Amino acid sequence: MTQSRYATAIAVLLVLAIAGIRSVSAKNKDVEPPVIEIHSKKFAYEPAEITLRKGETYKLHLTSDDVPHSFRIKALNLNAKMSVGTFDDLLFTPEEDGDFKVDCGLYCGSGHSKMGMTVHVVDK
Ligand SMILES: [Cu+2]
Question: Could you tell me which CATH class the domain 35-122 is placed in?
Answer without folding.
Answer: mainly beta
